[in-house]
Amino acid sequence: MTAQSRAANDVSSPNDLDAWWLPFTANRSFKQRPRMITRAKGMYYYTPDGREVIDGAAGLWCCNAGHNRDEITAAIQAQAAELDYSPAFQFGHSKGFAAASRIAQLAPGDLNHVFFCNSGSEAVDTALKVALAYWNVRGQGSKTRLIGRERGYHGVGFGGISVGGIVKNRQFFGTLLAGVDHLPHTYNRAEQAFSRGEPEWGAHLADELERIVALHDASTIAAVIVEPMAGSTGVLPPPKGYLQRLRQICDKYGILLIFDEVISGFGRLGTAFAAERYGVIPDMITFAKGVNSGTVPMGGVIVREGLYNTFMQGPEHMIELFHGYTYSGHPLACAAAIATQDIYRDEKLFERAKALEPVWADAIHSLKGLPNVLDIRTIGLVGAIDLASRPDAVGARAFEAMDRGFNEYNLMMRITGDTIALSPPLIITEEQIGEIVDKLAKVIKAVA
Ligand SMILES: Cc1ncc(COP(=O)(O)O)c(C=O)c1O
Question: Which end of the chain is less packed: N or C, by CB atoms within 10 Å?
Answer without folding.
Answer: C
